[in-house]
Amino acid sequence: MNKRWLHLVMLGCLAISTPRFAEGMQAVVGLEYDDNPFETYPGRRGGLVSRFYLDTAGQLLDQSWGGVQVKHQWGFKRFWRGEGEMVPRGEVMASELELEGQAQVFPRLQLSGSALVKVKNVNRISSQDSYLHGGLRAEAHATLGKGWAGSLRYQRSGDDPREADLASLSLQGLGADLSFNRGRRVQARLGAAWRWLDYGRLALAQGSEGAVVFSTRDQRDRERELRLGLNVHGKMLVDAGYALVDNHSNSVGYGFRVHQIELLLSRHLYYGVDGQFYLTTQRRRYNEEITPEGPKVADEEYAQTLLFTKLTRQISTSYSLGLQYSYSRNGTRREEGFFRKHVYGFSLNISF
Predict the structure, then answer these.
(1) Mind listing the pLDDT tens digit for each residue in 37-58?
(2) What are phi and psi of 54, to 5 degrees?
(3) DSSP string, 55-100
(4) How far, in Å, CA of 322 to CA of 317, rounded?
(5) Closest listed residue to residue 89, CA positions, set 141, 145, 45
(6) What pLDDT does 23 receive?
(7) CA–CA gap between residue 326 and residue 53 (Å, rounded)
(8) C-alpha 5: how far from its chain's center?
């Protein structure tokens, strides 16, 4: 996906993004303490982060056979250093616009699609990157009977980074899903996906005497994914998933296999408080490892973990309070670029 394609998607979204009537608007004001906002290791320094998000949704078309919705999110983050006076260290601003539509063409067949544009601008934050993202998705969902349903989807997206040292990315993907519902409380899912990723950078190749050199071709990765999922809705909502991803690359050091686990828990607790817990972790093994002596088979494994928990209390129909905590660990081979971070946050949600 080139820059011209991204710009066309953006202009198309903006041209038809005025909703016929607004469905809702929500503002989120929050303050967080991040013990590693610049994602460094070692020598990390904690600091405060203030944030503001504004979500709006509207209906462009509403008919008995389907409709078209528009969603827009605008957000702003300011990073502060907690040394002496509160000195601003940098800002992040992001805007995301999405158009989504669906049509019931037959009693058991529904078609849907979406177009998305996201712009992110970063000022003086080394752990964040500025970019322009655009994406398209088309999906067909069929009800097969006796609790069975299936879907087919196609997606295309692209990232155009603002930094000169980052590579652009073009992605195309095909996916298929099969689900079985036992009543309204249990759903089992099986899915497969194929993705083609093209990077705007030269691939690496193994040269003479084990040296790693740039080739004359751009890097291209091909991913295959198999996913299993289970959703149980009783006193507690439980959504669990497992994915196996196999990535083949024409660039030395970028072929790998991933085992990924996801778990989401959600339920009402006490005194009007709702709780959510989310965990995702993965183990990744590379086919080769780039070392000073040259590429060799990697014996080390890749680990990445994200844990998020949140408590929400509805104060009135328009106001709610939230407390959240997250822990994340990035994945690296050896210690280069490694970091851990803990984020503690408080938020006020206002619905209009």
Answers:
(1) 877 777 677 888 999 999 999 9
(2) -130, 120
(3) EEEEEEEEETTEEEEEEEEEEEEEEEE-SSS-EEEEEEEEEEEEEE
(4) 15
(5) 45
(6) 63
(7) 18
(8) 21
What is the spatial distance between Cα 280 and Cα 261, in angstroms, rounded to a whole number?
Answer: 6
42 cis-preceded (ω within 30 degrees of 0):
yes
Q: pTM for the whole thing?
A: 0.84
The identity of residue 58, as a single letter, is G
321-330 own/partner pairs: CB under 8 Å, 24+ apart:
321/346, 321/347, 321/348, 321/349, 322/30, 322/346, 322/347, 322/348, 322/349, 323/347, 329/303, 329/304, 329/305, 330/39, 330/304
Token pair, residue 218, equals 């751009």
pLDDT digits 0-9 by tens, 282-323:
988 888 766 555 555 454 555 588 999 999 999 999 999 999
User: Environment class of residue 278 by beta-carbon count within 10 Å: exposed (0-12), middle (13-18) or buried (19+)?
Assistant: middle
Residue 11 is inside which H or E element, if any?
Answer: helix 3-15
Tokens of 248: 């083949």
Say if residues 167 and 200 touch (Cβ distance below 8 Å): yes
Q: What DSSP string describes 173-203?
A: EEEEEEEEEETTTEEEEEEEEEEEEEEEEEE
Least confident of 98-107, 170-179, 303-312, 329-338: 329-338
